[in-house]
Amino acid sequence: MRNEEDYSYREERNEREYGLYWYSGLWHILRPILVGLTVLVLVIGIGMTVWNKVYGSFLAPVDLEDTQEYSFDINSGDSLNKVATNLENAGLIRSKSVFKYYCDFAGMSQKIQVGSYSLKKDMTMTEIADLLTTGDGNPIVRNITLIPGETVEEFAAKLVRNGVLESSDAFLAACKDGKAFKDYYYIEDVLTSGQPEKRKYVLEGYLSPNTYEVYVTATEEEIIKKLLSQTEAVFTEENQARAEELGMSMDQVLTLASMIEKEAKESDFAKVSAVFHNRLKAGMKLESDVTIHYITGVRKMALADSDLTVNSPYNTYQVTGLPLGPVCNPSAAAVRAALYPDESMVNEKYLFFCAKEPESGELYFSKTLDQHKRAVESYAPYWKKYDEDRGIH
Q1: pLDDT by residue (tens digit) across 94-138?
Q2: Which top-level group of life is the source organism from (predicted)?
Q3: CA dihedral 303, 309, 315, 317 (to 10 degrees)
C-alpha cells in the first residue's frame, strides 16, 4: 500500500514539475515578444504624436473651414523659392521651407508649371504641390517659334493656325507699315531711306528667328516688338563694324542674308555669299530665283519667261544689285555668311550656281557662263519633274 502511495505521489510531483517547466519555457518565448510589442506600441504612439505634430504644423490645410478659391499665378522664370514664398504669403501653405524640401525630395522642383491656378486653404500642402506640377492651371504664357527662312506671311499664318492670333490681318498690317516700330533705329532707317511704300513688308527680314515665350494675352504689336528686340542682339557691334568695312548697311546685309537663307543649306551659305559678292562687284544682276518666289509666293524650280520678266523691285533678273529688301527672315548663320563669304571662292571669282536634284538641296558652283549653262542643261529635267510632282506648271 505504501509503495502505491509513493508512486502516486511521485507521479503527481512529476506532473507539477513538468507543468512548471512547460509554463517556464512558454514564458521565455512570450516574454521577448511581449516586450517587443510593448516597445512597438510605444514607438508607434510616439511616431503618431510626432507625425500629428508635424502634419498639424506644416502639412495640414491652413484652414479646413475655408473653401473659397484663391487665384495663384506662377510666372515664367519664377524659382521654387519664389513660388514657396508666394504661397506662404498668400496663406495657402504653412511653411515655405517645408514646401521646398518636400518638392525637392519628391523630385517636383523642376516640374512646377507656369500658369494661373485656383487654390483653396482647405487643401493640404501635398495636394497643392501636386496641382502645381500637373500644369492644370490656365497658362499665362506660350511659346512661339519663327523658323529661319520663314516670311512674314508664313509666320502670321502659323500664329493663326496655332491659336496665337484669331486673324493675321492686324499682324500683317503692322509688318507692312512698320511705323509703330520706328523707335528701333534700324526700322527708322528703312522708313526714312528704304522706300517703305514699295516694300512688300517693311519688317520683312527684321523678325529674328528663334523660340519666344509670350503672354497668351500678347497683342500683335507686343509679339512683333519681342522679335525685333532680338534682331538687335543678333546684329552685334562686330557685325556692324564688318558691314561698314564692306560698305553695306544693316538693311543690305539682311537682304543678302535672306537670299542666302533661301538659296542654300547652311553648309553652303558662305559659298553662295561668295557668288553674290562677286556678282555685285562685277555689276552683274544677281538673278536669284528666290526673289521671284518671294514675289509670286510659289517655290517654282523651273522658272518661265513670264516669271523672269515680272515687274517688281524684288526681281533680281530685272534690277541690278540687291532687291529692294529682304525676302525672308534670315538666321544668324545666314547673316554671318553675308558678312563673311567664302574667301577662296571670292578669290577664284565664282559667279554662278544652280540646284542639283531638288530633293538633295545640293548646289553646283561654276566660274564661267559656259560651265553654268552645261550644269543647267544637266539638272533642268529634275527641276521640271519636281514642279510637276507638286502640281506646279
Answers
A1: 888 888 888 888 888 778 888 889 899 999 988 998 888 877 677
A2: Bacteria
A3: 80
